Amino acid sequence: MTTSESRLILFDIDGTLISSGPVALAAFSSALLDTFGTAGDIQNYRFEGRLDPIIVLELMTAAGLPRATVEKRLPSALALYLDRLERALSDSSPRLKPGVREILDDLSARPGIVNALLTGNVERGARIKLTAAGLWDYFAFGAWGDEGPTRNDLGPVALRRAREKTGKAFLGKESVVVGDSRHDVLCGKAIGARVVAVATGRTGASELEAAGADVVLTDLSDLSIAREAILG
Ligand SMILES: [Mg+2]
Hints:
Elements: E1 7-11, E2 18-19, H1 21-36, H2 52-62, H3 67-89, E3 95-96, H4 100-108, E4 113-118, H5 123-132, E5 142-143, H6 154-166, E6 175-179, H7 182-190, E7 194-198, H8 205-211, E8 215-217, H9 223-231
Parallel strand pairs: 1-4, 1-6, 4-5, 6-7, 7-8
Antiparallel strand pairs: 2-3
């Protein structure tokens, strides 16, 4: 395996690195309820791979609220969610997915490797979750959930930010997206990145494979398999 090459690794957060579980859902749900008077059909909503502001928009417009009203109150709804998430996670840490710390330690020790985030969370949400999980310091930067209308728009944001933060212009093919949903797979493919999908979220291995992932892993628990999958 060549280790001298430079590589940009873009990690998804929820379902890939951690699960914030019912704590995050409760904070999200109560913030919607207190901002809009309803949490909509949140129990049946498929959150995985989606962007937080878009989740609010979709849930609330589906519940019958005018789009303009939702857009106007969206910043305060997200702020309320994040305040509550921060409080909740101050005494209940998110659970790390198997092998996550080990692979991050391994990749961080390799010259030329840049670990970063590509996530549906807004930056503050990512920081709250990953600080509580003890993972925040592994990442050089992120492309966040409020930086584009769809997840596919975040790949180019990540490449641009990599250039700003590292001084190196990474090509899509020098990048790797690691995620647990079809949306992660599709956004990686959209920039020509290698995609490593992990079946540690709600999406099964066959669906991830069908979406076009280059490699699908049950989880990241075997360090050498995970490293080989990511570095190719
Ligand atoms: Mg995810």
